[in-house]
Each structure stands twice: as C-alpha cells, then as structure tokens.
Design goal:
Layout (H helix, E strand, L loop, with lengths): L9 H14 L4 E2 H8 L8 H17 L3 E4 L3 E4 L3 E3 L5 E3 L18 E3 L6 E5 L2 E4 L2 H15 L1
C-alpha cells in the first residue's frame, strides 16, 4: 500500500502543460501521462505516478480542458465557436486572412454565421451591409435554397 502523499505540485503542473502541448489534438492514455510524471515523483514510484496522472486528468476533465475519447483515451477539448444554427466550428490558434480578388467588389457578400453580421465588398474592403443590402442578400439566399 502506497502511503506517500500524491499532491500535484506547481512543477508537476508545468510538466502537465508541456505534455498537453506535445500531444496537441491527438488522443492519449493515462499510461502516457504516468510515464511523463514518473521521473518527477519522489520517491520514484509507478503507483504514485499513476495516482498523480489520475489527479491531473480528472482535474482537467472537470474544467472541460479534456474529454474522453473512447474507453481508454483522453484528448484535449477542441476550442470552437457555436454558430447561430447550433453547429460548432473549430477556432484556430492563429488568424487566417481570407482574400478575394475581384473587379466588382460590390457583388460580394460575407456573413458571420456566429453573430449574423453581414458585410459587403467595397472599393476599400469589407463594410457592414445596410438594411437594403441585407434584404437583397436574404432574397438571393432564399432563391439559392430553392
């Protein structure tokens, strides 16, 4: 029976963060966490490393940082946004430029599916669409469904 304390120290939390960064979005098992934690246990103990791995995983699952991935695996919860339709989309760590080259910017429309904002192309870039332009866009979308 292991009578040693299994408290999560600040240095062990740093090891945990580095581990999560290294696995990224891939699934992992508790045994992988134990393997990383083991060198940081004092005295060295596999059962203690397992207990610490359980504590780290459970604490992160409780905050929503981790989710189950099957029976034995865990993975980082994906950051994302919920659209007006209820669909979830991934949120990237870096921004992405969406470029559109055209001779007729006024014919282009962009809709933010999260907020419902409508943007229309102009000579100087994207501008918020006015009421008439939003109504025109709604009519075009209705025809497209058709």
């Amino acid at each position: 029976m292991n009578t040693h304390k299994t408290s999560v120290t600040p240095s062990l939390r740093k090891v945990w963060v580095v581990f999560l960064d290294s696995v990224g979005a891939k699934p992992f098992r508790r045994s992988a966490v134990s393997k990383v934690v083991y060198p940081h246990t004092n005295p060295r103990s596999l059962s203690r490393a397992d207990a610490l791995a359980d504590k780290l995983i459970q604490a992160s699952a409780k905050t929503g940082e981790l989710v189950r991935h099957g029976h034995l695996h865990w993975m980082r919860a994906q950051k994302g946004r919920t659209l007006k339709s209820g669909r979830k989309v991934a949120e990237l760590a870096d921004t992405v430029d969406l470029k559109l080259a055209t001779h007729c910017p006024g014919k282009w429309l962009a809709v933010d599916l999260e907020t419902g904002d409508v943007w229309i192309g102009s000579r100087s870039g994207w501008k918020r669409a006015d009421k008439e332009q939003r109504a025109e866009a709604a009519g075009v979308l209705k025809q497209a469904k058709g």
